[in-house]
Amino acid sequence: xxxxxxxxxxxxxxxxxxxxxxxxxxxxxxxxxxxxxxxxxxxxxxxxxxxxxxxxxxxxxxxxxxxxxxxxxxxxxxxxxxxxxxxxxxxxxxxxxxxxxxxxxxxxxxxxxxxxxxxxxxxxxxxxxxxxxxxxxxxxxxxxxxxxxxxxxxxxxxxxxxxxxxxxxxxxxxxxxxxxxxxxxxxxxxxxxxxxxxxx
Length: 200
Prior knowledge:
Belongs to the polypeptide deformylase family. By secondary structure, the chain is of the alpha+beta class. It contains six helices and eight strands; from the N terminus they run ααββαβββββαβαα.
């Protein structure tokens, strides 16, 4: 069953979420919810979906970065973003630790802000401790694009959206990004935006 994705402005996207108990994780209700979230993620399609995005303030995330999602990116783009396929998995009650102070910016979108994108600085490496769909503990070490996905989705569980972290002058509709900015090297684009800021 495809679930409705809520858009920015809905209160559920801005409130803290609650952890799930081990009994809840094993329940038919949560197991069914996970399957519905997976179907919704595939239907979108996108690489991650957090429970607040379907109106539930729960610490639950589903993630998958399919190889076909990367088909339109060049080899150079994939290398620059350190992006490779990530199999489907579930994170429950995740705890994120960032392993670097330095950040790198890339453009991100979000299902709860349809039609828009912006450059978002994020740490390129981190670890996550969580429970999987069966309530078993998992430890994840991620770099590059996978680390970015984890940060984006876990932010949702804290009531944070990418617009809270974005380089605000890079904010754009997807149409205009594809029309004017997508083919320009990201470093050149960000330097241009920063140079305009410094002259104001």
